[in-house]
Design brief:
single chain, about 325 residues, mainly alpha, two-stranded antiparallel ribbon, 2 strands
Length: about 325
């Protein structure tokens, strides 16, 4: 286990170094491709097929362990906080990836990776590694949510933790409830929905007209993108909450709290939908763009090097670049 953790930790340092010292020319630095495609999108099939591997290999947890952070602490997170930290960070990540115009700028990524690493390690030292992985480390909550679909799980037994197997998908019914669970899963669906819509002719036609109206009111395109993302998120989560509360009322549950309980009870049904959205939207991206790794592996910093003799490799992804 520690071998895998050290390898992932070293890879994380290498990508951070590419951000900090590599070229800022478009498609000349390996870091944006690794972060936004290989890692972010690649975590989905890895988690669904093999379970929550990311949680076990998490480089920030490795750093926290190496700096003496305890696995558990007596200091609990407030119950009402739930996974709100992860849910908020997921929306911030979506904003950075889908709205912010220079998200793949290496020097900006250097700063953001550093700030996130500091925040995460501090959280693990204060509240314990396991508790922060459960609630505050957004990528572990993300992979843990998707891993409920996996046939592979880690089980706690009297003799320690063991690898186990189960029928695929049934794990979603065992997902633990926590405040913001609905918001987090709704955000998974909403961000992919927004990404897909924002690139469609339907959106483009209406986006121009909407942008003109917003500009007339003194709102620029960047702010309009933020509004579009938040409206999409509110719409997806709002429709689910409305359906849940309607179902509760039809069952004779009149109190608002009972409607919220219905929303929490059925939220696991949204996880396969989130996976379907990811596959439909990111499949071609994940198939074609990583081909550029052959070229970038020889010159990861964009300095003109040719470590493996593949710096001139041409891939079929050149027509579908994203980062």
């Amino acid at each position: 286990m520690w071998t895998g953790r050290i390898v992932v930790f070293a890879a994380n340092l290498f990508v951070w170094a590419a951000c900090a010292f590599g070229s800022t020319r478009l498609n000349s630095n390996i870091a944006p491709l690794v972060i936004f495609v290989v890692w972010w999108v690649g975590l989905v099939p890895v988690s669904v097929l093999f379970g929550n591997v990311w949680r076990e290999l998490n480089p920030w947890a490795t750093l926290a362990r190496l700096t003496g952070a305890p696995a558990e602490r007596d200091r609990p997170l407030p119950h009402w906080l739930g996974i709100w930290p992860a849910a908020v960070l997921l929306v911030v990540w979506a904003w950075l990836e889908l709205v912010y115009p220079a998200a793949a700028e290496p020097r900006l990524m250097t700063l953001l990776i550093g700030l996130y690493s500091l925040m995460t390690v501090v959280g693990m030292h204060r509240f314990g590694i396991e508790r922060w992985l459960d609630s505050g480390e957004m990528f572990s909550v993300y992979t843990g949510t998707l891993a409920t679909l996996s046939p592979v799980e880690v089980r706690a037994t009297a003799d320690g933790r063991r690898l186990g197997f189960r029928p695929p998908i049934v794990g979603v019914t065992r997902i633990t409830w926590a405040p913001a669970r609905v918001a987090f899963i709704g955000a998974l669906i909403a961000t992919v929905t927004f990404d897909g819509l924002s690139g469609s002719d339907f959106w483009a036609t209406r986006d121009v007209a909407a942008a003109e109206r917003l500009i007339e009111r003194g709102i620029d395109d960047f702010t309009a993108g933020i509004i579009g993302l938040l409206v999409t998120l509110a719409l997806i989560v709002g429709l689910y909450e409305l359906a849940s509360h309607t179902s509760a009322r039809l069952a004779g549950w009149k109190r608002l709290r009972e409607g919220a309980r219905a929303a929490a009870t059925f939220v696991h049904a949204l996880i396969p939908i989130a996976l379907a959205y990811f596959v439909a939207h990111y499949f071609t991206l994940f198939v074609f763009q990583p081909q550029d790794l052959v070229r970038l592996a020889s010159d990861p910093f964009g300095t003109g090097a040719d470590w493996f003799g593949t710096a001139d490799h041409q891939s079929t992804s050149s027509s579908s670049r994203r980062t």
